[in-house]
Amino acid sequence: MRPTPWPESSTPTHATRRDSHPMTRSLLHTLPLLLVILLSGCSRLLFYPEPGLPFTPERVGLAYRDVELTAADGTRLHAWWLPAKSGVAVRGTVLHLHGNGGNIASHLGGSWWLPEQGYQVLLLDYRGYGLSEGTPELPELYQDIEAAFAWLERAPDVRGKPLVLLGQSIGGALAVHYLAENPRRYRALEALVLDGVPASYRDVARHALSGAWLTWPLQVPLSWLVPDGDSAIRSIHRLEGVPLLVYHSAEDQVVPLSNGVRLYQAAPPPRAFQPTRGGHVQTFAEPAWREVMLHFLDDPKGFIDLQRLAELPNPESPQ
């Protein structure tokens, strides 16, 4: 669930990110420590933050400003605000919740393209990531998402415009659970977009454990020690009324396609499923998938109806 930052000479339009699963590397090199963490049931196993920021959006030609938020427990958080491109009419606001590795700099590839299309973006670093204080663990991290919603609620540039949540990888899983527990925030959304989201933390841990000879024999007992109560599959059925678009790559080696299929099947309508190609959360490196999201945001409910007409039976796709 961790994309690598762009190379020094790259820009977002030419960004490529390698599949690199921090959980797998930890299992191979620090198995004794992993066993201690798992036996304690610690949610920190799910998060791999990187402190500091290697670059800012200015490096890739984006206007931005630093935003400081404060969680309910007093933890100071950092985010980037990307305004709509100058001269482009504002069409809405996107709250971007990124995956479990790196920080907002390494996940800018998920939303850099939106300001040019008239969407302003709040890209949040959870506690312990980038310039945010604290240590990432559950349930405290949900306070960070609440702080982002509270900031957007007060921001003059956001009022009266559609609000969309884009959750990539674990960011989408966190969003699903948070929104199910906070229906007022959910009802404020115009649409919800999930990209490469794990249906079950435990199942993804089992998948990672199965990829190494050292941990393959232990994949079942160890995976059962991973906290799973907040997994998206347990909450998504409660999200009714807001149009949902689920992206998932058939080539995702970190969070297999079956996760996206399960979430789509468990979600109440209106909903749409868009299978893609490429590595984990590399969706928006492909212009075609950016266009799909833009069409969806133009008319979320109308888009859903068209997608239903277009769906064809496929053993690897939801029915």
Would you kindly provide a written description of the structure presented here, covering whatever features stand out?
The structure is a single chain. This protein is α/β, with parallel strands linked by helices and 319 residues long. The protein is built from 10 helices and 12 strands. The strands form 3 sheets. The chain has an 8-stranded mixed sheet with strand order 4-5-8-6-9-10-11-12, with helices on both faces. A hairpin with a 5-residue loop joins strand 4 and strand 5. Helix 9 crosses helix 10. The longest helix has 14 residues. The radius of gyration is 18 Å and the shape is globular.
Strand order of the largest sheet: 4-5-8-6-9-10-11-12
- Strand element count: 12
Mean pLDDT: 82
Helix content: 25-40%
Largest sheet: 8 strands, mixed
Structural class: alpha/beta
| Proportion of beta-strand residues | 15-25%
From the N-terminal CA to the C-terminal CA, the straight-line distance is 26 Å
| Integer-rounded radius of gyration | 18 Å
